UniProtKB/TrEMBL annotation:
It comes from the Bacteria. InterPro entries: PhoX, TAT_signal. It comes from Devosia subaequoris. This is PhoX family phosphatase. Residues 1-24 are annotated as: Disordered. SUPFAM superfamilies: Calcium-dependent phosphotriesterase (SSF63829). Pfam families: PhoX (PF05787).
Length: 660
């Protein structure tokens, strides 16, 4: 999601446009000097020892081979031309096919999509709206048969429902949603689990699979970990504080080494409206989250979304949710040990000693970078033994220091300022109010942390910082050095001794994004990067099985960058480091989500989120975009079909690994 729905129902300006982090951490005025001069050192012996310690000789060899290419890019494909139009585009020599669209049947009994007669019941079995995270979980280790797991982050009612919008003075005016429409929205959230297979070279959904499943905004979930059963999580519908109804705003996510699916609850505050009673105990908690957001009309029909009626309901959202896709009857679990904030995602990796490390950004201007390290260790031979690993461990928040080092500071009750004196009676309070705890530790205020992707091949971790137009000259810091950072940047972390579980490390900025031909932008793409190859607003990232980094974006448009969002291949090794090339671009209005490759590198799944949202600034449309008059009718291009978010799959013509 690009910070907020483009066309919210109400009350957006007050909450979301003000940064909610009012703590005073590290808003030092002087900056960066000499950051880049350390690059040579960081790419030298330290990087190599990190690789060796983490991944062993085979990966080391492949990484060193890449280094040895001496300036050659690790990628080979003809670059797509940057631009914006109604369709999507992939590099020449590749096929892109639509695999699942909003409304396509997911469950075995779901009806075909009928946009003029949509119901909540139908939607609860069909592919949800605004696909974001995409994961591929192989069945029997296959690269051609597995489970596709997809998050459905949010809904765009103006593009979903006929007859809802009027144009008044050239602007969209959205009417009131009916109860059924609200319930369709709730059912269009959550996630999809779909068995897929490649038959005669084409991927398709397996009908009548026992795995095919929808999770929605009403699916029962279990709350586990330190906050489970806490008074602050009890509501009139659940006096135990252990069973939440549904999961919401599932942005990016992850797949664990034991094959469970992680859904990250991001802008959960947006679904809540109303006002807390004066001096309510949760006031400070809510204020720090910019809550309630008032983005939707759900409170008109469901009291739980009205904070004046159910003040604790919102404390049951904002978590990482773990789902076992292999068991269709499994209850999704909200893992509170991993903290409560606007989780972008939860990508994981196994540390040398077997502990599992999960990285998660808190996507808000001036918020933080986190990681969670499990107390237990991963057992590759006993899947069942891993199923509750995420309930015990240590949550850390990052502080980036000026000398290029960094520290992961533990959010542990009783340590430092995290005591009853500061309002934290137990670890439950710390995980419920993670942001406030992190403020007290002096974490570094970042430029909207999105996906954080560990790379097993080179031992590094890549942090997407999408943008922060609110950062001023006065509050730049060494890890977020650009005031008015509208194009974002990417930080590369090397954990100490190549150990992802380490509590310290080093870091540098891999890329400052934006158009490198405009000096004032200060972008740092190499000169080998073509006019198509640069991008702004990094959001999601993927690392393929060769350890190559791919970055997808959210917010490129005709006005800011003269290009649609897309997927860029970014070199990280050798002299080509910092070179970027455009592989795929989305249709007008969309953002690019969910890049994930199969292990053999031959199939690439991509999520096209909110296509057709906006259109005023694209001269191919030049006016508001809504159900009856969308900027594009991708992917069907039929007059009787609305524009539909969809997951697509890219393969190489004639077969083989992508981009080699
Ligand atoms: Fe849902 Fe941070 O993007
Ligand atoms: Ca985003
Ligand atoms: Ca995102
Ligand atoms: Ca990712």
């Amino acid at each position: 999601m690009n910070e907020k729905p483009t066309f919210p129902t109400q009350g957006l300006e007050s909450a979301e446009f003000d940064p909610t982090n009012h703590s005073t951490n590290r808003t030092m005025g002087e900056v960066i000097a000499a950051r880049f001069s350390r690059r040579g050192f960081l790419q030298g012996s330290l990087a190599v020892s990190a690789i060796a310690a983490t991944v062993g000789p085979a990966a080391l060899l492949s990484a060193l081979r890449a280094e040895a290419q001496e300036g050659g890019s690790a990628f080979s494909f003809p670059e797509v031309t940057a631009g914006v139009d109604a369709d999507h585009h992939v590099a020449e020599g590749y096929d892109v096919k639509v695999l699942m669209r909003w409304g396509d049947p997911v469950t075995n009994d779901a009806p075909e999509f009928d946009p003029n007669n949509q119901t909540a019941e139908a939607q609860a079995g069909q592919f949800g709206y605004n696909n974001d995270y995409v994961g591929y979980i192989p069945l029997d280790g296959s690269d051609e048969h597995g489970l596709l797991v997809v998050n459905h982050e949010y809904t765009n009612p103006h593009l979903m429902f006929p007859g809802l919008v009027q144009i008044v003075d050239g602007e969209l005016e959205q009417g009131d949603l009916s109860e059924e429409q609200v319930n369709i929205e709730i059912a269009a959230h959550g996630g999809s689990i779909i068995e897929i297979e490649k038959v005669d070279g084409e991927w398709r959904r397996v009908a009548d699979s026992k795995y095919n499943r929808r999770i929605t905004g009403t699916t029962e979930t279990l709350i586990t970990g330190p906050a489970a059963g806490h008074d602050r999580l009890k509501t009139s519908a659940d006096e135990t504080g252990t069973k939440a109804q549904g999961t919401l705003n599932n942005c990016a996510g992850g797949v664990t080494p034991w094959g469970t699916y992680l859904m990250a609850e991001e802008n959960f505050h947006g679904y809540f409206s109303g006002e807390l009673p004066a001096d309510h105990a949760e006031s400070e908690n809510y204020a720090r989250l910019g809550a309630p957001g008032g983005w939707y009309q759900w409170h008109n029909f469901h009291d739980r979304f009205d904070v004046s009626k159910e003040p604790n309901e919102m404390n049951r959202f904002g978590y990482i949710v773990e789902v076992d896709p292999m068991d269709p009857t499994s209850v999704p679990k909200k893992r509170t040990a991993m903290g409560r904030f606007k989780h972008e995602g939860a990508e994981s990796i196994v540390a040398p000693n077997g502990q599992v490390v999960l990285y998660s950004g808190d996507d808000e201007r001036f918020d933080y970078v986190y990681k969670f390290v499990t107390a237990g260790t991963y057992d590759a031979d006993d899947r069942a033994a891993n199923m509750d690993l995420l309930d015990e461990g240590t949550l850390y928040v990052a502080r980036f220091d000026e000398d290029g080092s960094m520290e992961w500071m533990p959010l542990v009750h009783g340590e430092g300022p995290l005591t009853a004196e500061n309002g934290f009676a137990s670890q439950a309070d710390i995980v419920i109010e993670t942001r406030r705890a992190a403020d007290l530790l002096g974490a570094t205020k970042m430029d909207r942390p999105e996906d954080i992707q560990p790379n097993a091949t080179n031992g590094k971790v890549y942090v997407m910082l999408t943008n922060n137009s609110r950062r001023t000259e006065e509050d730049v810091n060494v890890a977020n050095p650009r005031p008015d950072n509208v194009f974002g940047h990417i930080i590369e972390i090397a954990e100490a001794d190549g150990d992802f579980a380490a509590t310290s490390g080093t870091w540098e900025i891999l890329l400052k994004c934006g158009d490198p031909s405009i000096a004032e932008v200060g972008a740092t793409f190499t000169t080998d990067t073509t006019e198509n190859g640069w991008f702004g607003m990094p959001d999601n990232a993927a690392v393929d099985s060769d350890g190559r980094l791919w970055v997808s974006t959210d917010g490129n448009n005709p006005t800011d960058t003269g290009r649609a969002d897309g997927l860029w291949a970014v070199d990280t090794e050798g002299a080509a480091r910092g070179t970027s090339r455009l592989f795929y671009r989305v249709p007008v209005g969309a953002e690019m989500c969910g890049p994930v490759f199969t292990e053999n590198g031959e199939s690439l799944f991509l999520a096209i989120q909110h296509p057709g949202d906006g259109g005023e600034d694209w001269d191919g449309h030049g006016r508001p975009s809504y159900y009856e008059d969308p900027a594009t009718r991708w992917p069907d291009f039929q007059d009787d079909m609305p524009v539909r978010p969809a997951v697509v799959v890219v393969t190489k013509q004639g077969g083989g690994k992508i981009a080699v």
